[in-house]
Amino acid sequence: MTDIKTPDLPEAQSFTDPKAAVARLIELYDAATNFLCDEFMSAMSAGAAPGSRMRAFYPEVRFTTTTYAQVDSRLSFGHVADPGTYSTTVTRPDLFEHYLEQQIGLLIKNHGQPVVVSVSETPMPVHFAVASRPGLTVPQEGAARFTLRDVFDVPDLATTNDDIVNGTHVPENGVGPLSLFTAQRVDYSLARLAHYTATDPGHFQNHVLFTNYQFYVTEFEAYARAQLADTDSGYTSFVSTGNVEITDAEEVLPGSPKMPQMPTYHLKRPDGNGITLVNIGVGPSNAKTATDHIAVLRPHAWLMVGHCAGLRNSQALGDFVLAHAYLREDHVLDDDLPVWVPIPALAEIQVALEEAVAQETGLEGYDLKRIMRTGTVASHDNRNWELRDQSGPVQHLSQSRAIALDMESATIAANGYRFRVPYGTLLCVSDKPLHGELKLPGMASDFYRTQVSKHLLIGIKAMEMLRSMPLERLHSRKLRSFDETAFL
């Protein structure tokens, strides 16, 4: 089959108005997806392969500058480092409308040059196109009466990768990347998010909390209902698994017949600056999976608020641990981010977390040290590390000066660093295995239960502090390299 049928391919257009540029992206994207959906439904109805191959393309943003003139160096994004041509393919411009307007607007403003919007040369897989049509799905290979990939483009893992993020991307034809993610990479993650969290990506908010303990979900729902009851809170709805959305504090949430791998809940604000809570469960693999996909939504911050093992005898169950460094023994990111890469603490996040602890506990200054330690958090990939020969693990923990151990925090922080998403960690000590206090039934003290109840509120309060911070201050330059993409 050599004949290829495509939708109309309009000429490229230049824009100095970011809203107009994004409107054009939406128009081109809709034309491509409508074409593929219509042709797919027609082929499935006919039960036979059409006479032509069907192909549509992602829209593209392209930008060219010819000067080395410096722009405002205080910004970590919104500009390119060197003269040249840069481009990125775009998907779901309706979902990313505000983000695209912001990023394109900064590029135009900082360089005084227009952007060019056109149809790219990257084919759109039919699987991702039909995702825009509720109730329409692509059957598995062999289920249709014709070979799907003979007629439509399908996802291509050779072009769906993290080369740009990992700094290993080699530009083609001298055109550099404008964004950390290509359209296919974003589409892949959007599909994975819906699968793993049982909520639509459009519900995700700009501030994401990760936890490894179901108790926090109950606390989060209680907090959300209190906020919905307060007409001045700014929060307008709460979304549970299965995309069940309530706007009234008294509404009943139906039970989910089947819980997803990573149950996710969203306390929403109209501007998207609400809070999302993801229960990632236990282990660095889940932590990597969640952050790999949530990163394409470009959140403004993510924090880990979970349980950990305290490593100092001076710690008590229920004490808090504020991570300022990480010992990475989780291993899931070693191929993407070598362990020799430092994961710095971000001052804006650290200050917000410490202030939130002080406000929720009523302690400050030296008194705060009674219930919170700041130091290195170690993340391990073996939940039952205590059952192995202790000489190796304990020596590593001692040499690193670690004060707490878990399985997720270093992964979430490292992926935050890799994806340029501001990150932080505040943990609650649930056991002290080196000192005879194992995580066993009945060992939780009243102090521990009280602190756990406060823990989630501390994470929420820290996020609300970060929400009031200008983006140019929150998105630290420590997360950006010397040869960085313009888009955040």
UniProtKB/TrEMBL annotation:
Signal peptide: none
Catalytic reaction annotation: AMP + H2O = D-ribose 5-phosphate + adenine
CDD domains per record: AMN
UniProt keyword list: Glycosidase, Hydrolase
Domain Nucleoside phosphorylase: 269-435
Pfam families reported in the protein's UniProt record: AMNp_N, PNP_UDP_1
Residue ranges annotated for the AMP nucleoside phosphorylase N-terminal domain, each copy included: 20-174
An MF annotation (GO) of this entry: AMP nucleosidase activity
EC number: 3.2.2.4
Source organism, top-level taxon: Bacteria
HAMAP family for the chain: AMP_nucleosidase (MF_01932)
Known role: Catalyzes the hydrolysis of the N-glycosidic bond of AMP to form adenine and ribose 5-phosphate. Involved in regulation of AMP concentrations.
PANTHER family linked: AMP NUCLEOSIDASE, URIDINE PHOSPHORYLASE
Family in the record: Belongs to the AMP nucleosidase family.
Protein name per the record: AMP nucleosidase
Primary gene name: amn
